[in-house]
Amino acid sequence: MKKILFATTALVATAGVAAAEVTFGGYGRFGLIYNEGNDDVGEKKTNVEQRFRLTITGLTETDAGVKFEARIRFQTDDQIGGSSNVAQRSAAGFAVSSGGFRLDVGNVSDVIDSGDVFDYFGYGVGLTSFAETSSNFVLPVSGFGTSGDDSLVSPTVKARYIYGDFTVAASYTRDSIVSLDDPLTTGTDEFQIGDEEWQVGVGYSFGNYNIGAAYGQSDQFNGGNNDFWVVGFGGEIGAFGFTAIVADSDLQDDISYGASINYDIGAATSLRAVYSDNGIDNGSVGDFDFGRPTYAVGARHSLGGGVTLAGGIGQNTNKNIVGDLGVIFNF
């Protein structure tokens, strides 16, 4: 993501003292999105898609070269009927790094979501990446993001160390916290509901390829543990790029697997495809089916200046045709 310096870098006129800076970065996107299943909930099949994301990052460095970082995010998204919500904000995430070691604390990604050891999401199809390698997987993966005004975000601690071509990482998320209005009082009650989680992972890069694996466990609020694992492999062969993952957990019937590919047909244009099976047996709740594979194809074309025309079409896990088309621009 291209970073734009927000203000003049803060320089201290003392020898050996490093610079501090604040940067703004993010993206905007808008277009049209289609979901055949909207009929089932009384909504229009085609709506306006829109998102604006702004991430603010503060960086500084000690005399010894230790880097400190903090960031927050603001974001608006499309809602029912294509309207936009008022910008949501995030809890803060922090990081300390030196050499090959990095420690993240607060509202930060866990091992799987971070991409430290392998790519969990792959080449997303469409303007909104409505289909990804891990679409509909049921692993307890969490990352840095925005929340509602009254939300409380459970802190995550993640440590990563890179040594040559090897990467090792571990993360821990404390018990989830839920904030609920108590109708008998004028205040808000907070509850811990469990779902404590930890993950460990290792990755190895060789040439244009990467392979990695992660294992974890989450304590469920209703008792018992959910053990899970995932293995990922990806790389590039000339104009062709690919990712593939397989995973399993105590919450699914079978092993889940997914793959995505990207092929550059020119300097500015690429084709993408995704197939993802979440490992849940076909079933239904009322009028809704679930547990079916997700697959999609799409294309992207660079218009220059960080602007990309993107779109795709496919089928989601509810067996509904979905698609989108629009532009996305980074800043």
What labels would you give this structure?
disordered N terminus, two-stranded antiparallel sheet, 23 strands, single chain, mainly beta, Porin
Q: What is the structure about, briefly put?
A:
The chain has one helix at residues 111-114; strands spanning 4-5, 21-35, 46-61, 67-77, 88-90, 93-98, 101-106, 146-147, 156-163, 166-173, 177-181, 188-192, 197-206, 209-219, 225-237, 240-249, 256-264, 269-277, 283-285, 288-290, 294-304, 307-315, 321-330. With 331 residues, the chain is mostly beta strands.
Description:
The structure is a single chain. By secondary structure, the chain is mainly β. It has one domain: Porin (Beta Barrel). It contains one helix and 23 strands. The chain is globular, with a radius of gyration of 21 Å.
